[in-house]
Amino acid sequence: MKHLTLHIAGKYKSFRLAVPVLVIALVSGSCKKQLDVKDPNDPTFAGNVTSEAGIASFAKGGIYWNGFNYGDGWLGDSYFSLPWGYHELMGDVIGGGQGSNNQTTTMGVPDNFQADPTDPSTKFVNPSPQASAIIRGFNTTAATSNANNALYYEWVNMYAMINACNQTLENLGTISLSTDKANTVKAWCYWWKGFAYAQIGTLYYAGLIVDQSNTVVNKYVSQTAIIAESNRNLNLALTTLNAISNQADYNAMIAQLIPSQNQTGLGLPPTTAMWARSVNTMLARNIVLNKLSPFVNGNPNATINKASIPAMTAADWAQVITYCNAGLKKGDYVFTGRTTASNSFFSATGGSVAGICTQSNQNSTYKVSERLVQCFKSGDKRLANFSTANGTFYGDANTNTTRYSLVDGVATNLSGIQILGSRQVGGLEIYIGPTFEENQLMLAEANIRTGNIAGALVLIDGVRAAQGAGVAALAGSVLSAAQAMTELTNERIAALAFRGLSFYDARRWGWTYSTANGGGRYGATLIYNKILYTNATINYNFMDYWDVPADEVVKNPPAAGSFAVLNPNY
């Protein structure tokens, strides 16, 4: 495992990195210079991490620089712009622009669609299907060096984060800290390792469990095993948090671990109880996002063939209900990101999907999808986030044609609603982990699936009210399971837009699978040949779990007994 130094000037400094991939081709895009290991701007345990402030800085930088910035200087400038961009592209919350940028033009393009199901002349067929032509065709080290391998970025970010957490845990005993300050740092590392393994296991078909820093592991395990490792770390975080008794020591340490610019709005340091509720919501997420719960063409009993994951069971839904009942509450502080004018781990204009979208659709790299906007009810006050003033952007028949641009909600003083986009410094709150809305909508879906539709409608109403939607309440309505699921799916897409979840939702509902295997999206709005259609059928046929990046497999070949590194269903 190679040892690399990434220098980023400013408050959060640089950090000595070691990640599983043996050669990091993209480092040259971000590095400014190499630093001596004793440089105060390059904290290492061997050199200068010898105090409480030092370990807090190291632990903080390992998450926000190593995890959320490292290697992301190609399109945008952080984890929230490119890796999350793929999620939102494949979830059809955004479309790609024209030209080739890290395959963002191509990754979200379906295999085919028919704008009018009764008119064969409105069918579009993609000449370059995602799974065979894009994911497999460009999963090479050469493509990575040319910024054309979409599979690379999330893997690098999350394993850099895991390695930094391992380094912190291994060296924590060398620093003089009170018991509960040390426990706060431990909980921090366990939480973020749980987060990182969840991101790996929810996206890739296989992964590596790396328990020690600066080591090479070549025994690849299944995504199920990776999710189990995520859960193990999350439960360690929960146990550690519950053991903290000195709240003053906890408060002093957590305030040092979270970047100061994040400590506003819902990003204030959470109490131990709030953080524990985040853990429970994350444990529920790990179940929900990694099991099928198909709802295709209005059928809550749909089935999907050739999926890489099993369907949710009654026991799964019961566990989700248990976790969510102990999960995040309205007003709880959660983990967020904010920008600063300089030296931030992401920028206001290029560091997030929402920031990139927040400009005229005529020149933004990402475009607001027609399918996102259709999920808001007529009269929903949150529609003020979107504008048609810039006219229609006509894409190249790839479903990225759209009438909408994302409004800068801070610059235009939107109030009373959830603001989706802004390019103002510090204006946009990026939700890094789970939120109250996600918790309530998972609980609502579990209630629908277990027969408590009335209870689910109250929960959906609560989310809409919290975001200022101003639409008529559902409570008291008599809805079928299919009608309730329609409300639920629309609200999850609307309320959780730009939070990196859209692809996983579309996948588990069955929409991203081939129509030949029971999937597809129906009743979709799209513009084709400059005509607006509102009942299109889209056959995405996206790979459900990605192959392991070639940069890892080629330079770190699988050991005997490893799990498959290529998804056999595609």
In short:
This protein has helices at 52-67, 83-90, 130-136, 141-145, 152-171, 179-203, 223-242, 247-257, 272-288, 314-325, 353-357, 370-373, 436-449, 453-466, 481-495, 502-508, 550-553, and strands at 3-6, 15-18, 94-96, 112-114, 123-125, 206-207, 221-222, 336-337, 366-368, 386-387, 405-406, 430-431, 521-528, 531-539. By secondary structure, it is an alpha+beta fold.
Task: Walk me through the structure.
The protein is of the alpha+beta class and 570 residues long. The protein contains 17 helices and 14 strands. It has helices at residues 52-67, 83-90, 130-136, 141-145, 152-171, 179-203, 223-242, 247-257, 272-288, 314-325, 353-357, 370-373, 436-449, 453-466, 481-495, 502-508, 550-553, and strands at residues 3-6, 15-18, 94-96, 112-114, 123-125, 206-207, 221-222, 336-337, 366-368, 386-387, 405-406, 430-431, 521-528, 531-539. Helix 1 runs antiparallel to helix 5, helix 1 runs parallel beside helix 6 (179-203) and helix 10 (314-325) packs antiparallel against helix 13. It is globular. The model is unreliable at 1-19 and 21-40 (pLDDT under 50).
Q: Quickly count the helices.
A: 17
Give the strand order of the largest sheet, numbering strands 1, 2, ... along the chain.
Answer: 5-4-14-13
The main sheet comes to:
4 strands, antiparallel
Q: Which whole number gives the mean pLDDT?
A: 92
Distance between the termini: 31 Å
